[in-house]
Amino acid sequence: MGLSNGVETIAKAETNPRGKMIAYWSVTLLLAVAVMLSGIGQLMKFGGNIELVTNLGYPLYILTILGIWKVLGAIALIIPGFPRLKEWVHAGIFFLMTGAALSHALANDYGAYGFYMILPLSYATLNIASWALRPMSRKL
């Protein structure tokens, strides 16, 4: 019936800048390590990289090209400064990982339990999270 004469409390959701920074660096470091290890594996032709690429119909030299770009991109994500370069790296990782998933899908090469689709799409998701959580100093 009537309004109380008390002080109205409004809950305001504030983001924790420290928590956001921890989340950003956790996701970004995980992404950078994953991309770096993947790039090194491609450069050294470790594991099933050769079979993976030939099953998709790509030439073997693509491993060298992708490996170099991945290693350089992982370094660029971590070093301070260069916000425009970081934007390009995020775009490159997104296109690379979604392109990998699409290549496997179009070649009917899903791997066990869809692993060849799940792994690159999970990296693309980490990439989007890293980009979304980036601090102001890393934005254009």
What report would you give on this structure?
The chain has 140 residues and is mostly helical. The chain has one domain. The chain is built from five helices and no strands. The longest helix is centred in the N-terminal third of the chain and has 27 residues. The chain is globular, with a radius of gyration of 21 Å.
Largest sheet features: none
Radius of gyration: 21 Å
Percent of residues in beta strands: under 5%
Supply the number of helical segments.
Answer: 5
**Which structural class do the helices and strands define?**
mainly alpha
- Between the first and last Cα atoms, what is the distance in angstroms? 53 Å
Order of helices and strands: HHHHH
Q: Can you give the helix content as a percent range? A: 55-70%
Total individual domains: 1
Number of strands: 0
- Uncertain residue ranges: 9-13
Mean pLDDT: 89
Choose one word for the global shape: globular
What does the secondary structure layout of this molecule look like, with pairings?
Layout: H1 17-43, H2 49-56, H3 61-78, H4 83-106, H5 115-133
Helix pairs in contact: 1-3, 1-5, 3-4, 4-5
